[in-house]
Design goal:
Layout lengths: L1 E5 L9 E2 L3 E3 L3 E10 L2 E10 L5 E11 L6 E10 L9
Antiparallel strand pairs: 1-5, 2-6, 3-4, 4-5, 6-7
Length: 89
């Protein structure tokens, strides 16, 4: 699981609109709004769902109310490997 923060610049403010939790084929992601001082930021958490060995690629598309950038696309790449013999479980 990985987490990133999305922080709008003062010059180009925006709000996220639409779904907050989405399941795709190989990932699940959740977007939460957080306040820091008087500013709004967003916390995006991405979790892997793929169990079998192999690579995958997903695109997260977050909708905004901005006329400049109505959506933000985040590419997620994964590579599931075999565990080495004698490795941790």
């Amino acid at each position: 699981m990985r987490t990133v923060k999305i922080i709008p610049e003062e010059k180009y403010p925006f709000k996220m609109v639409g779904d907050r939790t989405v399941h795709k084929k190989y990932i699940r992601y959740e977007l939460e709004e957080a306040k820091r001082s008087d500013k709004t930021e967003y916390v995006l958490t991405v979790a892997n769902l793929k169990k079998e060995k192999g690579r995958y690629f997903e695109t997260i598309r977050l909708k905004t109310d901005s006329k400049i950038r109505p959506d933000i696309r985040i590419r997620v790449y994964g590579n599931i490997l075999n565990r080495p013999a004698g490795g941790k479980k």
